[in-house]
Amino acid sequence: MKKLSLIAASVGLLAALALGGCGSQPQATGGEAAGASDSANAKVIRFGASAGPYSDMVKKAIAPILEKKGYQVELTEFGDYVQPNLALAEGSLDANLFQHEIYLKKFAADKNLQLSSVINVPTGPMGIYSKTFKSIAEITDGATIALPNDPANLARALGILEQNGLITIKEGTDPLTVSEKDIAENKKNLKITPVEAAQLPRALDGQDISVVPGNFALAAKMDLNSALALEEMPEHYLNLVAVKTADLDKPFVKDIKEAIESKEFEAVIDEQFKGFFKPEWMKNRK
């Protein structure tokens, strides 16, 4: 197996799905200079991923399969959600893994970038966690709950609360932009406290319940399967591998897709990424 080159970047807790702000620049510690050669011809694939479970997914589940196909995988880890797409668009990356479809389309449209999805991958779902209650049914009237304060994750958090019968949302509300003002019924009179998404795991020390996005739960070493309930994730919230639109038909992209569709990839997911929500293509195959 050829060596997996790891290019370290400054790693911080990610501002969940925030579109604004400047990200930290990754720093190369080895390997070829960004954009120095045609990776497809050199059998090198330069992958970018958010630090944490998705860079782990590249290292543990994707790179080993690609290496068997004769590629060398160079991985750049990012501590933000802005630089990976910019690096992909300008050519210092060949593919990235950190975002879902809604974010990709919005970012590409806002920045006038030609980027496309290759395939959805298993994704850590948002979960309802508690140190006070052992089940949804045990949640008492007036319990305190911490929710993410950014619009994208708040919409998802309210969705999982509705999925589990704790609230109802006004009819006709856009599920992607729903906020606290759209709650029609708060069945348990939950006392809601908005919290920065990265702090939601710690919020469990002061709140009865916390709704935590999967990446922050995993960063805090939380067991996804310890959640009172996990999100039923629609396909547009599943993370994906993205490439430049012009590269979609290139052999290295087809090989990435083939690697992710392999049984070997799924076996690693089942063993090392327990609790991750699988995309429809994986759940429906025989």
TrEMBL record:
It comes from the Bacteria. Coiled coil: none annotated. It is found in: Membrane. This is Lipoprotein. Its main location: membrane. Belongs to the nlpA lipoprotein family. It is a lipid-anchor. Keywords: Lipoprotein, Membrane, Palmitate, Signal. Residues 1-28 form the signal peptide. A lipid is attached at residue 22 (S-diacylglycerol cysteine). GO terms for cellular component: membrane. It comes from Brevibacillus fulvus.
